[in-house]
User: Fold these one by one.
Assistant:
Number 1:
Amino acid sequence: MRSADIAKIVMLSLAVGTAAIGTATSLDAMQNIRTETVTLLTAQFDPREVVKIEGGDFHFAPGQVAPVHRHHAPAVGYVAKGHILYQVEGGQPVILSEGEAFYEPTDHRILRFDNASATHEAIFVDFNFQQAGEPFIDFEQSPAEHIDRRAFETAAGFVKTVSSVHVAEITIAADDLVIPDAGALLVAYVAEGVVEVRTDGAMPAAYSAGDSIALGDVTKEVVLANPSATTRSKLIIFSAR
């Protein structure tokens, strides 16, 4: 099996608009002088009719090993803490480090998805872009130890054909904001600070570090804002088209 058949990962830009940055209110805020976007990966797959995006926040104890499993839907995620030992059948094992994104392709056996450290916890988030009736995960055998999965809000209420998921890390400066490109399926994870979601006619909703944001099918302008005047926010955004 060629590695190209396992995961097609390319680096592309994520179209994100930014507004002008407000004046820093203190010397401590100078580190937040710019809002920046860094593309982490793009996962490409056969077109599929997605009806929901189900996510999870996984906390692995030191040395914890995941059972061999498959995903029926493209699973795209981000390592929030620590290191993960990852191996797809037919590929070489790799170490995923904090701040990196990953892609688990459909219908391939995932041989390893383990905490690479024997002494420190690992945390990762995982979003599945599911068709109707698809499960979140399919274990070959029941897990031998408890898996600490903390469920995120599911994005649903849409039917949209997509063939790729772009993952970007957006550092939002103090008092700044970003406007995601409309027309995509969007979910996000707050990695640092606080992010407010602002839409016309609705009260702003605030999300703190560790929260997910289930935006779903973005058909009108949505503003993602950093409400702090002094500290930055960091957002990991998953955009499917």
Number 2:
Amino acid sequence: MAPPQDAERVQLPETWNPESISFPLRRDLPSIPGAPKGAAWVWGAEDNVGRLNLLTPTRVLAASKAIKSGEVIPVNLPLDVPGQPAFNREPFVHHLKTLIPGLCYDDNYYMNTQSGTQWDGFRHFAHLPSGTFYNNTKGQDIEGPASNLKCSIHHWAERGIAGRGVLLDFCSYAHAKGLKFDPYDTCSIFYQDLLECGRAQGIDIRPKAQGGDIEIGDILFIRSGWVEAYHSKNPAERAHLGLRGHKEIKFGGLAQEESIIDWLHDCYFAAVAGDSPTFEAWPTKAEYHLHEYILSLWGMPLGEMLNLETLARRCRETNQWTFFFTSAPANCPLLEPHEMRIEGRTFIVSGGASGLGQACVEHIVEKGGHVAVLDISQDAGAVLVDKLGSQTRFFLCDVTSTETVTEAVNGAAQWSASTKMPLGGVVAAAGVGGPATILDKHGAPFDLNLVDWVLNVNLRGTIDLVRQSVAQLAKVEPVEPDGERGIVIMVASSAAFDGQKGQVSYAASKGAITAMTLPMTRDLARFGIRVATIAPSLFESAMTSRMSGKVRTSLESAMEFPKRAGQPDEFAAVAVHLIENIMLNGTVIRLDGGMRMPSKM
């Protein structure tokens, strides 16, 4: 990608440094492959905080110089204001819970976080033409079975918001100039209005790089007068305005114009906020909304319905329009109640370099988890880790060797601790087959070495891996609200229920896994660890690839529907669902297309 002509001023995305004192103008933004035009997703693919990256310790320390008197001024409205929120949002509800009459009480709140003073998070408003939220976040990242924590507002809470605030009191400026501006109508505040408002306050609202007073990382506040207008109305009027239908909703705010967009971008504000419910004039008079630029394209936190009345009065009295501002956004990382999250956790998968185990590894990684890949094949493990990247790590492991299992599990636990991605479970997918009838065609008994091999891998190996993994899993901090620590997923087979001729050893090993699922569940319940087993029938794997065409065709004919071998991805999808659904515990899931095998094919 060739740099723009003004290359000295422009930083390419991979070189952006939040400590820089120079950033590109909007017109000079480099294009980002796969991103909408004008996107400034420049802080890395894993970024969740956008322009808050500009609030470096150096800038926060410099911002503290704006503290002159030490006076603290809150800017949040009471939780029940407005009494009737717009956009059909639920009003705040407060219930008092009596624990001990006269001695002890709790408060229960029910609220829509968009009903009053708020931060609009990056998952609130998409870039409408592309259906994309900040940093390529999609709707499926926010809701549904693949939902995750990408760009969740709790990432802001983990760092907080602190920096120099700059207030533009447009309401007072408009009153002084006799300008007509109704906060409950679609009145626009243009860039020229803000320029003149700033001059009246003694502020040059241009970026410092252009000779103005705005510093990189400043937090912008605009008082339009909505809070003042709200309190000037009686309860009936407030309710009527709050209940307006979507097509009738109107609010004053910033104009949808190129000058405003350029200014908001080029000042490199860390965040912007206002006192109105929409910040921008509503409904939009353009083919776009400022929300799309601010939130989706730039990753700039957007505050609405802040109570700027006292702050504006004190700024006028002291003629100081800059101040130190702090905010603690909601620290709410939960996806859905009672859901075990894969993102941010580490899982141990044996037999992870091929077949069903490999499919589980790939699905867990796709969901944002880390995977310790345990396998007997060093080469296959290296290929898989090279393919999937830093979310995986290979550990050589022969499940028949307690020594290598110990080394692998301990290594996985240490890796988990170093990445701060706590263990979330173990998938015991290593397995072998060994067909042999108990008496051969000559009447001779089968070799017990074969029995030992199958039982050692499938049964003893599973137990050894599980016992060592859950010892580590039990040390993990439980996840509320249920206190879950993780899950054990074991692999049985249809042979556990209706094994065929020649499957004595195999059926014994898989039947034992099926039988021990419930007692293991009961053993681990007090630790908040669930146990579930998947019993597949014919699935594509290294084991089934060695079958003769005749045997494979016979097995497929025994399937009720569909009449084909299962795909590893279909197995892995069940494993992922087991991880995420906390009510699946102590169960054996037959994943067999309705197959009930006859005694022989």
Number 3:
Amino acid sequence: MTNGEIEAGGGGRGGDGQIPQPAAALGYAGALPVVILAVLVWAGSDAVAAFALPTLIQLTTIILAFMGGVRWGIAMAGPAGPRFGPLIVSILPALIAWPVMVIENRVVQMALLVMAFAGLLVSDLRATRRGEAPAWYPGLRVPLTVLVVGSLGACLARVLTL
């Protein structure tokens, strides 16, 4: 490691392809409560799980909307300037997050979140290939998405087996 960065593959727009340490630290710090809540859903008492599951859904819904904001920033700073397509993609996470917050079916909520995070990752990978996002971005997004989708998927499986 050099200059406070974590190694990742590929060169980046204005960088050497390494994940900036602040982005990695804050990204993983944000994923930690998601993983902890998923463990509590599986390993906690019924009372703990009854708290942890809706909290997990609320937290990941907020993270999804935040990721839309990240995409807005990427779209605004893109090499071609702000364009409708990337800006529309950037508001989709918030448009998905809103109904997730009001739907009362936990299975539907988690399924929507899993699909939204997976779809957003695919979109982020495409944006990186087009040079719209830094080359280091997939090195952070892929493992964080695996943690979030894995946590949601595990909780979805738990709910389906009850």
